[in-house]
């Protein structure tokens, strides 16, 4: 999949025609002239001092930004976070053979999935599943009125705890 996409990109670069690049006070803008429309295509690239961006709609929206970007970073498990500036990549699609990172966060309609130095977390609304490989432990919990209620927890040190009572209730172990 990755190689096919790179091969197509290589073909596009080597067969490019009607390219136009302008350097002015707005930075460097790259675009292609469309003879049929007698105008430049909406798909363009622009580079400024610390940012490279691509658009597909004539700069109504940016589709990819590489450089100094603005993003939301979670601070803790309560979801309280902050907007911050940093150097990175913001793109609609990322295809790679390898991603090396200290943290990974995925946000979608089914919840938040994160890998941090504290473990692997799955959060949806007030429900959480935590896997901590250092301890090691597995915890399933829910926040109710701001209080974390543990439904199930397993660790070699504590054994299996169900519903916070230490009793097996509503569960069959095979």
Describe the protein in words:
By secondary structure, this protein is mainly β. The protein has one helix and 14 strands. The chain has one helix at 2-14; strands at 19-24, 27-34, 39-40, 44-48, 51-55, 64-74, 81-91, 104-108, 111-116, 119-124, 127-132, 137-144, 147-155, 159-162. Strands 1, 2, 3, 4, 5, 6 and 7 form a seven-stranded antiparallel beta sheet that branches.
Give a concise summary.
The chain is mainly beta. The protein has one helix spanning 2-14, and strands spanning 19-24, 27-34, 39-40, 44-48, 51-55, 64-74, 81-91, 104-108, 111-116, 119-124, 127-132, 137-144, 147-155, 159-162.
- Count of separate DSSP helical elements: 1
Structural class: mainly beta
How many whole angstroms does the radius of gyration measure?
24 Å
The percent range for strand residues is over 45%
Order of helices and strands: HEEEEEEEEEEEEEE
What is the number of strand segments? Answer: 14
**Global outline:** elongated
N-end to C-end Cα span? 42 Å
Mean pLDDT: 86
Q: What is the makeup of the main sheet?
A: 7 strands, antiparallel
Unreliable segments of 5+ consecutive residues? 166-174
Helix content: under 10%
Question: Which helices and strands occur, and which strands form pairs?
Answer:
Blueprint: H1 2-14, E1 19-24, E2 27-34, E3 39-40, E4 44-48, E5 51-55, E6 64-74, E7 81-91, E8 104-108, E9 111-116, E10 119-124, E11 127-132, E12 137-144, E13 147-155, E14 159-162
Antiparallel strand pairs: 1-2, 2-3, 2-4, 4-5, 5-6, 6-7, 8-9, 9-10, 10-11, 11-12, 12-13, 13-14
